[in-house]
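Why should sequence recovery work at all? Because a backbone constrains its sequence more than one might expect. Tight turns favour small or flexible residues, buried strands favour hydrophobic ones, and helices have their own preferences. The token representation captures these environments compactly. In the example below, the structure is given first.
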């Protein structure tokens, strides 16, 4: 890797990956392409390590001419594709944008790299990589007794978001099989950590608790997820890029399966310890069960045997240590929270998605 195009690099996971790569790869130059929609922000790119090796481009992955120009201008040899609409609730209310970004956007990237790398042969084929970042949600939902998903589990997406990501995964594989595109795919579980957009469960819970607002829990709170600390995810992607077998998929997860209610309760207990003088003690008293989302998957679980065995990767953070680090980050970065919350449409979205849900 010398010249890396990171799509969606101003978003939550993408910006963490940019920081990680600048720290661990001193010779790499990063070209960061982001449309700066609601979930991507220039606030996430402040105080980068070695910013001289980072170029930010405000643009859309669906803009074929722009992407083609970037590949040629910067001689891009590696694409790490994060850019995606990723919030299930938003996909239920407006699926069209998910198809546009996740499917059409991925198709556009694939066509451009096919032209530049495979048809024009602008760079040695052995030196190029297309790394597609996907999700565990493409596999559907598990019953309590069922084994965790492996890389060979058939796809069964249940939400418009999951279906759009499944479609993009299939496109990447098809370009590898049909055209010989050197690709890698990683499917990760729920991420959490610094710079996560405040509408997601963990930051929403932390910030609502700080202000004494209700902590909404969908349904009975019994939905089970695997939680992966974002810096562990970034390390795993870096290892797959450097050591993974081309044309392969790798599952990544935090090796935990708490219920959503358990996660919210853990956050409340951490805040009780960190803020013993809070007027909202105990913070568990703020928990409110609200109407569930339509078609809410009950359980996700990732089998990470392959990446452990082949690459020696395992998460550094347990759920407990990761949540402690995450709470500390948000408490120490309230100015970032304010800047993100002041973005157009943020409060309106929360009203649409949460205020209208009836308490159970």
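From this structural description, the recovered sequence reads:
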């Amino acid at each position: 890797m010398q010249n890396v195009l990171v799509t969606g690099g101003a978003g939550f996971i993408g910006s963490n990956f940019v920081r990680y790569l600048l720290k661990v790869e001193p010779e790499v130059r990063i070209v960061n392409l982001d449309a700066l929609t609601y979930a991507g922000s220039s606030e996430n790119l402040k105080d980068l390590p070695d910013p001289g090796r980072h170029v930010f481009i405000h643009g859309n992955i669906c803009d074929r001419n722009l992407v083609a120009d970037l590949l040629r201008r910067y001689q891009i040899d590696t694409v790490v594709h994060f850019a995606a609409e990723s919030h299930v609730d938003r996909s239920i209310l407006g699926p069209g944008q998910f198809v546009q970004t996740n499917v059409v956007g991925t198709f556009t990237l694939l066509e451009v790299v096919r032209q530049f790398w495979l048809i024009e042969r602008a760079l040695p084929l052995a030196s190029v990589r297309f790394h597609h970042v996907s999700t565990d949600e493409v596999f559907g939902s598990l019953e309590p007794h069922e084994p965790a998903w492996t890389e060979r589990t058939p796809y069964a997406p249940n939400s418009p978001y999951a279906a759009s990501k499944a479609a993009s995964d299939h496109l990447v594989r098809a370009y590898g099989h049909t055209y010989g595109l050197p690709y890698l795919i990683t499917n990760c579980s729920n991420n959490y950590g610094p710079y996560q957009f405040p509408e997601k469960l963990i930051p929403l819970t932390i910030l609502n608790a700080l202000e004494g607002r209700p902590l909404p829990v969908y349904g009975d709170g019994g939905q089970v997820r695997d939680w992966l600390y974002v810096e562990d995810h970034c390390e795993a992607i870096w290892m797959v890029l450097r050591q993974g077998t081309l044309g392969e998929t790798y599952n990544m997860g935090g090796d935990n399966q708490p219920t959503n209610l358990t996660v919210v309760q853990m956050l409340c207990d951490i805040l009780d310890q960190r803020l013993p003088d809070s007027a909202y003690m105990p913070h568990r008293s703020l928990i409110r069960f609200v109407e569930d989302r339509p078609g809410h998957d009950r359980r996700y679980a990732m089998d990470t045997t392959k990446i452990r065995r082949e690459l020696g990767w395992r998460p550094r953070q347990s759920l407990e240590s990761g949540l402690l680090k995450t709470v500390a980050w948000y408490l120490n970065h309230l100015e970032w929270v304010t800047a993100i919350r002041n973005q157009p449409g943020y409060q309106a979205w929360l009203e649409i998605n949460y205020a209208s849900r009836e308490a159970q």
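A few observations help interpret the result. The mean pLDDT is 94.
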